[in-house]
């Protein structure tokens, strides 16, 4: 085998693409019996207009798997990525953030805490706290969000969750 080729494994369970994002754990009745045995597609993924338009009820799972296998090196780096709103109590979202994250094959934690970004640095700001050890993830983030990933020392805040990358989403 080629020295750069590595075998990766991916478990198709309720943590795929984030807890209950694509696949949901079975529910139980009051007597401990499965109401729906085995894992099943979560309603959001199953009922997506995108899947209906393609006449493929598993399209979201398939699309996610393609992204993972095409970007296995990002999975291998296993970078901790947290996204924060810049305003307390606001949802972590804006057009640029949603467009960028849909093509990423990485897990990201959406924090309930808010952090301040720098004025004039854009609607999505990304800071690298990995000391340059997650170069492929950094490149993927820059490409997906069409923005420069800045060194964590340039952030207007201290590292909060021991994350490798902090994404500040301008929501105001």
Structure description:
This protein is an alpha/beta fold and 172 residues long. 26% of the residues lie in helices and 16% in strands. It is built from 6 helices and 7 strands, in the order ββααααβαββαββ. The chain has a 5-stranded mixed beta sheet with strand order 4-3-7-5-6. Helix 5 crosses helix 6 (135-145). The radius of gyration is 18 Å and the shape is globular. The chain starts with 22 loop residues before the first strand and ends with a strand. The model has no long low-confidence stretch (mean pLDDT 81).
Shape, principal axes of CA atoms: globular
- In terms of DSSP E residues, the strand content is 15-25%
Tell how many strands the DSSP assignment holds: 7
Query: What is the number of helical segments per DSSP (H or I, 4+ residues)?
Result: 6
Outline the biggest β-sheet. 5 strands, mixed
Over all CA atoms, what is the radius of gyration?
18 Å
Low-confidence stretches: none
Structural class: alpha/beta
> Which sequence of strands runs across the widest sheet?
4-3-7-5-6
Distance between the termini: 51 Å
